[in-house]
Amino acid sequence: MLLVKAVLPILRDLLATFVFVALFWTVGVYPATAVGISLIVAQTLYMHFRGHKIGALHWLSLVLIATFGGLTILFHRPHFIMIKPSLLWFALGVVMLRRDWMEPYLPPFVVAHLEERQIAKAGYAYAALMFVLAVANVVVVKLFSPNFWAAYALLGPTLAQAVLFGIFYLCFHKQIAAGMRAEKQKAAA
């Protein structure tokens, strides 16, 4: 159940990106951008009226999408919306430079079986990835076609984050499992 709760926001974000990219490829950047702005505004209103807490990251996304999407439509320049992910990745990287940012997102049993410095190092690795993604997005925007950028925007960051998650899972799984086994043996004794 914890995995489902952790994955749902990621899937919701991926779905929004998928819808944007699908519209980008089928009807063009301007309708896709207008729908993207409408979706983030509708999602925010829904969350507000349902009494859900709206986190800082969601507000940041709303501001960036509305601002850069609006500039894209107003000036007929797709580069505004294409550069938006770099700003978001950079902002996330800055937030992730805090030593303790990751702990609230981890299940209690993970925190109980890892050292604080291990969690902090994992958090810094995620921050570094965000900065790499920010730069990579700028490079893709500058060097490749908008259609290539759309494919990259959907797949590149998703795959990079999945790989980093997999690395940490493999690195920490054995230690966490050993700690949990030791606790069970201690409780049984």
UniProtKB/TrEMBL annotation:
<feature type="transmembrane region" description="Helical">
    <location>
        <begin position="15"/>
        <end position="42"/>
    </location>
</feature>
<feature type="transmembrane region" description="Helical">
    <location>
        <begin position="150"/>
        <end position="172"/>
    </location>
</feature>
<dbReference type="Pfam" id="PF04279">
    <property type="entry name" value="IspA"/>
</dbReference>
<keyword id="KW-0812">Transmembrane</keyword>
<feature type="transmembrane region" description="Helical">
    <location>
        <begin position="81"/>
        <end position="97"/>
    </location>
</feature>
<protein>
    <submittedName>
        <fullName>Intracellular septation protein A</fullName>
    </submittedName>
</protein>
<feature type="transmembrane region" description="Helical">
    <location>
        <begin position="124"/>
        <end position="144"/>
    </location>
</feature>
<keyword id="KW-0472">Membrane</keyword>
<feature type="transmembrane region" description="Helical">
    <location>
        <begin position="54"/>
        <end position="75"/>
    </location>
</feature>
<dbReference type="GO" id="GO:0005886">
    <property type="term" value="C:plasma membrane"/>
</dbReference>
<keyword id="KW-1133">Transmembrane helix</keyword>
<dbReference type="InterPro" id="IPR006008">
    <property type="entry name" value="YciB"/>
</dbReference>
<keyword id="KW-1003">Cell membrane</keyword>
